[in-house]
From TrEMBL:
This is Propionate--CoA ligase. The keyword Ligase applies. GO terms for molecular function: propionate-CoA ligase activity. PANTHER family: ACYL-COA SYNTHETASE (PTHR43347), ACYL-COA SYNTHETASE SHORT-CHAIN FAMILY MEMBER 3, MITOCHONDRIAL (PTHR43347:SF3). GO terms for biological process: propionate catabolic process, 2-methylcitrate cycle. Residues 3-57 form the Acetyl-coenzyme A synthetase N-terminal domain. Residues 63-445 form the AMP-dependent synthetase/ligase domain. Keywords: Ligase. The keyword Ligase applies.
Length: 629
């Protein structure tokens, strides 16, 4: 089928389109109405339908593929590789679900999961789904304060945590963070269920509160816990956004719409079906992890790889080695991760023959053309950008190799996905911008299945955050974009980050892309800094590739970068200053924290740093600003 026809139908006849797509999952009771839209922008997909995510991800496959590998959890930190067939996964999930039930966890109760990328995190999520509990996975290793905030927002009945995670060979003890978070929280849950990996021998337990999963599991090893059938619009999980622009928002997802959107996108976008292998390098704590490490691959009966470790250890070829060993067909990673590899010798990309490997998908941050070319040429495989948000849960802009692959245009995540009625709106006039004109990317509601249903416990924040920016009731992506004559979209940066130089509006992404074309540059962040005359001027922070000489060569690089931007984008975009640093501040999910750099450059408070990954990177920015180079 042609992409254009399928897409048109998804917009013109959404109920017919999604009724067809809904056949891909199991319904205990079929939907009464495909779309109920009486209270815009709130909408109810598959109203009255009853289904269950765990049943669709696990039980449904037992007959046809019980002995097929469902989940491989690989840790290059501990050296453990854990493999589970669908039948074994079913056992593990039932035991976990029985443990939850024994602790009084019920339908609709929230359960906070604070674990690293290990199989037990997946069991915990599926066990919650099985009994209708609402999981809220908090990225393992987030500080106690972050965890406490999320506990207070979700008010969980239970917290499930691991003793520790590992990163770069170092044990990161989680339990002390849990203890601290529970002391900070206003409404701590009565119990903590600990999955003890044996990594932290000094771990202490609070009698009566802290329980050991292994002991509980022994008691429930052969349990059969019936699936709880949920109405399609009941909450399945909560997940907080990355907090790049401020306080994270608690995205609430439904059940049926989520399952259907994932089934569709696994087939059309990611081109993975039953028995095939998908490797997403995400952490389960992010939206990609939820959708494409856990639910998506399992719902379609594929094999999912979960990875704990760095992309460059034990060596920079580890990911491709795993792709060869497991016969990976589709891989999903982030531009940030590829830029880490890009600092290494490209010979690592060509060490393994990858006959089964079809596609590398990248998402989460703008994919600059030099990085896309470097990885695509090094691997000899197509690289496909895709754009989405924690809120949407699945790609908004993408190409669909599983259906009808349109040409890749470097720098663009592609075309609208099914059900996304997208427009670019001029912020000032509120009118639709013509192709080639920049503006805010919006979607006309109803949003398709799979997207957030609300902000947890806060409908007002849902409306205010996303639907209050224009006179029409449009969903604002809060991203800046431009479309071209072929209907492709290009993301230019976040609306908060737009730089206004003497009345010219520039997306951070345009300038970063120009900087990245310099052969010595590994990564760049561009911010707008207040200027008396021009309003704002662009300022660049760049990291250089390993092997770039120190000293004078760096100063030369800084000058070359200013000239290069002027050459490519015109004198108006010429950076006022260029700073060469060793690291850029990012969120734990790998996104550049431009707002914090900007605040430092304007001598303001850097704001909410709760999701900052490496405080040293920000300290280095501060030092570079003080030094003036
Ligand atoms: P918060 O909403 O709390 O500020 P966040 O927006 O960083 O955090 P996520 O939902 O993890 O949280 O990230 C989604 C954002 O990431 C998008 O809105 C966009 O700015 C950026 N993004 C994702 N994919 C792409 C892509 N392919 N190209 C360009 N930008 C992308
Ligand atoms: Mg966001």
């Amino acid at each position: 089928m042609r992409y254009e026809d399928a897409y048109r139908r998804s917009i013109d006849e959404p109920e017919a389109f999604w009724a067809d797509e809904a056949r891909a999952i199991h319904w205990h009771r079929p939907p009464r109405k495909i779309l109920e839209y009486t209270n815009p922008p709130f909408r109810r997909w598959f109203a009255g339908g009853e289904t269950n995510l765990c049943h669709n991800a696990v039980d449904r496959h037992l007959d046809a593929r019980g002995d097929q590998l469902a989940l491989a959890a690989i840790s290059t930190e501990t050296g453990v590789r854990a493999h589970y067939t669908y039948r074994e996964l079913h056992r593990e999930v039932n035991a976990f679900a029985a443990a939850l039930v024994s602790l009084g966890v019920d339908r609709g109760d929230r359960v906070v999961v604070y674990m690293p990328n290990i199989a037990e995190a997946v069991f915990a999520m599926l066990a919650c789904a099985r009994i209708g509990a609402v999981h809220s996975v908090v990225f393992g290793g987030f500080a106690a304060h972050n965890l406490a905030l999320r506990i207070d927002d979700a008010k969980p009945k239970l917290l499930i945590a691991a003793d520790a995670g590992m990163r770069a060979g170092k044990v990161i003890a989680y339990k002390p963070l849990v203890d601290e978070a529970l002391a900070l929280a206003a409404s701590p849950p009565p119990h903590v269920l600990i999955v003890d990996r044996g990594l932290d021998p000094s771990m202490t337990r609070v009698a009566g509160r802290d329980l050991d999963y292994a002991a509980l599991k022994k008691r429930h090893a052969n349990a059969d816990v019936p699936v709880v059938w949920l109405e399609s619009n009941e909450p399945s999980y909560l997940l907080y956004t990355s907090g790049t622009t401020g306080k994270p928002k608690g995205v609430q997802r439904d059940v049926g719409g989520h399952a259907v959107a994932l089934a569709t996108s696994m087939r059309t976008v990611f081109d993975v079906g039953p028995g095939q292998v998908m490797f997403s390098t995400s952490d389960v704590g992010w939206a990609v992890g939820h959708s494409y490490n856990v639910y998506g691959p399992l719902i379609v009966g594929a094999t999912s790889l979960l990875y704990e470790g760095l992309p460059i250890q034990p060596d920079p070829g580890i990911w491709w080695q795993l792709c060869a060993e497991y016969g990976v067909r589709t891989m999903f990673s982030s531009p940030t991760a590829i830029r880490v590899l890009k600092k290494q010798d490209p010979a690592w990309l060509a060490r393994h023959a990858l006959p089964e490997f079809r596609w590398l998908f990248l998402a989460g941050e703008p994919l600059d053309e030099p990085t896309a070319r470097w990885i695509s040429e090094g691997l000899g495989k197509p690289v496909i950008d895709n754009y989405w948000q924690t809120e949407t849960g699945w790609p908004v802009l993408c190409l669909q190799p599983g259906l009808d692959l349109k040409p890749v245009k470097f720098g663009s995540p592609g075309l609208p996905n099914f059900g996304y009625d997208l427009r670019v709106i001029d912020e000032v006039s509120g009118e639709e911008a013509a192709p080639g004109e920049k503006g805010v990317l919006v979607a006309r509601p109803p949003l398709p299945p799979g997207c957030l249903t609300t902000v947890w416990g806060d409908d007002a924040r849902f409306l205010q955050s996303y639907f209050s920016h224009f006179k029409e009731l449009w969903y604002s992506s809060l991203d800046w974009a431009v479309s071209d004559a072929d209907g492709y979209y290009f993301i230019l940066g976040r609306t908060d980050d737009v730089i206004n130089v003497a009345g010219h509006r520039l997306g951070t992404r345009e300038i970063e892309e120009a900087v990245a074309t310099h052969p010595s540059v590994a990564e760049a962040a561009v911010i707008g800094v207040h200027d008396e005359i021009k309003g704002q001027v662009p300022v660049v922070f760049a990291t250089l590739k390993a092997g770039t000489p120190e000293g004078a060569a760096r100063a030369d690089a800084a000058n070359a970068l200013r000239e290069r931007v002027a050459e490519r984008l015109g004198a108006v975009a010429k950076p006022a200053r260029v700073y060469v640093v060793n690291a850029l501040p990012k969120t734990r999910s790998g996104k550049l924290l431009r707002r914090s750099i900007q605040a430092l450059a304007e001598a303001r408070d850097p704001g909410d740093l709760s999701t900052l990954d490496d405080p040293n990177a920000l300290a280095e920015i501060r030092a570079a600003l003080d030094r003036g180079s």
